[in-house]
What we know:
Layout: H1 2-7, H2 35-48, H3 59-68, H4 77-100
Helix pairs in contact: 2-4
Amino acid sequence: MSLYLAKQKKQCIIPFQFSATAVNPFLTLGIRYSNEKMREIIATTIMVHEHPFNIVEDEVWMWDFQFANPEFCKVCRKTARSDCIKIYEAEKKVLKTLLTSLSKISLTTDMWRSTHQVAE
């Protein structure tokens, strides 16, 4: 076994030196906290993960935001709903302008059905 291990090439080791001046690439310097931006992030999270609007009334979920930034102001479900609608309308407008600039578009769909799927 020792002969086998001696013949094997070792993986190259990349020397890594920690730099005290290294900056977090995800941290944007010079940006101040904005409640409007947080509301946009919350609305986007609700839409992407398909959460109900009343998730913003969940205390534990809001604790995360308040812990991350004490300046965070809670939002109600009606505000979250209106923020989601604003984002939806803005994205719809962008998509409409994109589609008007195209001459052709191809849509495909999968019509496969499971044998266990209930017919509607």
